[in-house]
Amino acid sequence: MQRLPLATMVIVCLSSSLRAQPPNAPAVNTPALYRAFFNHAQALEKAASDAEAGSAKGRELRSYYQHKIGLSESQAATLKQFAAQCVNATQDVDRRAKAIIEQVWKQYPPGRVASKDQIPKPPPELAQLTQERDDVTNAQVQGLRAALGETSFGKVDGYVRTEFAKQVKPVPVPAANPAGLRPAPAGAARPPRLQPGNQP
After folding, report:
1. Which pTM does this prediction carry?
2. Is the Cβ–Cβ distance between 19 and 172 less than 8 Å?
3. Do 111 and 194 touch, CB atoms closer than 8 A?
4. Core vs surface per residue 17-31: b (16+ CB within 10 A) or e
5. Higher pLDDT residue, 3 or 166?
6. How many angstroms separate the CA atoms of 8 and 199, rounded?
């Protein structure tokens, strides 16, 4: 019997709608775009902290978006504050989603189904968490707007929607086969088993 890895639901239900934008493509999902931006801002801050204290490299990383967007030092600090809040809040949502997914996986030991027709539909709770994730992100974006004021926030928003958006190129998920599963050819080696904690 052909064996297929069980689809991971977090990719389907909690994936961002970001992708490389072809000409005339619809606007990207704003919460997903800002989540990517906030996560990158946090990653730069961590890299700066990991660099030698007071080094030129650390200072360059820490002030990257300040100089790119044209913010003052205090405005850049405000941006980092809301980025950290958003990342922490969405990570909490992701942990709850992972717990739901792992409960579903327990019903299909050892994490495989006989065919793609047997892949279970994502629990409705995951769709609710997707919406919660967007709501959390939107709240942080609006908080940043209020803290910076319209003029300075306009600089951030313009940068995120233009320059930053150009760099965001996640792999799109095909609607007809969200997990990208294919039956293994006859006689082919069985594909490796996926685990909930090590999805791409």
Report:
1. 0.70
2. yes
3. yes
4. ebbeeeeeeeebebb
5. 166
6. 7
